[in-house]
Amino acid sequence: MDSYRHKGLRKKLVAELIQKGIRDERVLEAISRVPRHLFLDKAFEEWAYKDTAFAIDCDQTISQPYTVAFQSSLLQVKPGEKVLEIGLGSGYQACVLSELGAKVYSIERHKALHDKTAARLRDLGYGVIRTFYGDGYQGLPRFAPFDKILITAACPEIPQALLDQLKEGGCLVVPLGSDQETQEMIRVTKEEGGTFKKEKFGYFRFVPMLHGKV
Ligand code: SAH
Questions:
Q1: What is the CATH number of the domain that holds 184?
Q2: Cβ 86 under 6 angstroms from ligand 1
Q3: Is 63 a catalytic residue?
Q4: Which domain does 65 fall in, by range?
Q5: Which neighbouring-strand residues pair with 150?
Q6: Please, which of 10, 88, 102, 115 could form a disulfide with 108 given CB 3.0 to 4.6 Å?
């Protein structure tokens, strides 16, 4: 359940994110609406509004709020846009995108995690988010093209299939690099005529994007 205490803790988290440099008002607003404590095991609830990543099922993590806010800001989501997320995980990032007005499609390669998160999203009133059990390297050709694509796992190289599923004028945000080291946050914009512009935004650490379903 959400409470005034949790809302107060979210306000503090938002203040911390502003201090760390997040400026996008709509992203901050979205973060202040999503009850992060309901995306973690009960044992971690006390710490849900600390700006840190946490372990979730299947050896995966819920990203640090700063990272979620940073990636969401880079995507510049406009209401009504179709956004594909690779790495549903806990579903927290997907909810932030949904709060930004995106039509969210999200893929997860762990069946158990996918099913648990899909149920959670329904329970929390985020049933509009479309979740898929599958391999994110393939994207979702049936629903392409997408205005924006967000990869929330460390990706050794940008999958061509995902670039193909991006609309002209759209962008893809990805932590690029192999799993051991840190990864560089990259935004790739598909320009008119199908050329790509690459921008770099510093270093982060993610769990790896792996091939195949489990
Ligand atoms: N966005 C998530 C962060 C999850 S961590 C959140 O807000 O909680 C990254 C997730 O990507 C993990 O759940 C992992 O299982 C998933 N993942 C890794 N490789 C994948 C792939 N090829 N396709 C789909 N999901 C993948």
A1: 3.40.50.150
A2: yes
A3: yes
A4: 53-204
A5: 85, 173
A6: 88
Query: Which residue has the least CA distance to atom 2 on ligand 1?
Result: 89
Distance CA 72, CA 93 (A): 8
Mutate to test the pocket of ligand 1, among 61, 66, 209 (most ligand atoms within 8 A of CB): 209
| Ligand 1 binding pocket includes 22 (Cβ within 6 Å) | no
- Check pocket membership of 136 for ligand 1, CB cut-off 6 A: yes
- For residue 58, being part of any structural domain is answered with yes
Q: What span, in angstroms and rounded, lies between the C-alpha atoms of 110 and 7?
A: 31
158 belongs to a structural domain = yes
d(CA 21, CA 93): 19
Domain count, the chain: 1
Give a yes or no: residue 152 inside a domain: yes
CB of 96 closer than 6 A to ligand 1?
A: no
Whether residue 35 lies inside any domain: the answer is no
Q: What is the DSSP letter of 1?
A: -
